[in-house]
């Protein structure tokens, strides 16, 4: 096209636009029609999009991990849609906060802003009753888990519930019934199931079954600084109160590790334990030595302690006939865990975190969304959101797992009381 043709063409377009504008000005319904067509276009774009408004109840220590994960998920929503090719474009958003101590909710909101903040004795119930809240994270002391779960399920809200799920397995059964009745997602915060080193162990065990020989013993020790001292690092005094926490170090802390081993080794056969209460808080044990025998023959010996040191470290030594694995998870370290393997006389080598992370995300079929901290809480919350996206009332981290590990823990306490071995009932799991 030469320059004269171009000018003619531009003139025609301009004349058509002017004609169009004049016609629009003469049309008395022009503004209404314009608004309607905009609305239609908007509706078309948003038809497949849904915001999941998340409410956090309990703005304390663990809430920070979850709020951070939710903000990462919000920012990575597009990647999640692409992965699932889901028809519904779901985006999780931190929408509301609730805490009985209003100042805690206010302070939390400085770092993780939310549209609504509920404060005071009825804050949690008000958040659950808010019709704009779709899913709740229940992150309060254990004593209040059951009431909130039953109320949230009845209101049709999806539930991410921190561990221990409840005071008793029977209370967890009630939660499961409510989940099924009201068709909501109920996930329990058994975060080891979303920890890549624990997950990777399964692969190591199956890949090397022949080469390493039998898995003979797992020796586990964990010592954590007392989490209830009211110093700035450990302000949660409720953990030394049996009425709020129900029990001590095994129930509150090492439930994770016992559940992690169950996720790898399967059903427990029997348990034997000695439990002590050095700090003198009734019902709050701070020393547990337990032998847990799995049905596959593996013996897992657990030593769980609370200490007064500035020390927080889990260690696993997993012995095979011809090899060993050492796992060190120092709670004060940036690294989630260090995993070392040794086969016969060959030099011990470390498995890189990236190797374990990549394998984990691939196996669970989830996008390895780039996160500043690709920690287990992020993967755990991603699984919760995906259970909602998939309209799946059973999350991958089933409430049944929470019930099972608590049945085993009860058996451990019972063994200490009767001074004898306790067999795990067959019907469990
Ligand atoms: N998965 C994990 O690794 C992990 C780690 C720590 C704690 N947890 C669990 O998370 C839960 C909370 O523990 P935390 O360490 O964050 O405790 P925390 O004491 O730090 O925080 C609890 C918050 O809940 C508020 N609260 C108490 N009762 C409430 C109620 N009825 N309604 C509303 N708000 C209430 C408190 O004011 C506080 O702000 C517990 O179940 C605990 O076992 C899990």
- Taking the alpha carbons of the first and last residues, their distance comes to 77 Å
Global morphology: globular
Which topology of the largest domain does CATH recognise?
Dihydrodipicolinate Reductase, domain 2
Number of helices: 15
Order of strands in the sheet with most strands: 14-13-12-11-7-10-9-8-15
The small-molecule ligands in this entry are: nicotinamide-adenine-dinucleotide
Report Rg: 27 Å
Query: Biggest sheet, in brief?
Result: 9 strands, mixed
Mind sketching the topology for me?
Elements (H helix, E strand, L loop, with lengths): L2 H24 L3 H17 L2 E9 L3 H15 L1 H8 L4 E11 L2 H10 L4 E4 L3 H7 L5 E4 L6 H10 L3 E4 L7 H14 L3 E3 L7 H12 L1 H4 L2 E11 L16 H4 L3 H17 L2 E9 L10 E8 L4 E9 L4 E9 L2 E8 L7 E6 L5 E3 L1 H11 L12 H14 L9 H20 L3 E2 L6
Parallel strand pairs: 1-2, 1-4, 2-3, 4-5, 5-6, 7-10
Antiparallel strand pairs: 7-11, 8-9, 8-15, 9-10, 11-12, 12-13, 13-14
Helix pairs in contact: 3-14, 7-8, 8-15, 9-13, 12-15
Bound molecules: nicotinamide-adenine-dinucleotide (NAD).
Nicotinamide-adenine-dinucleotide (NAD) binds next to α3, β2 and α6.
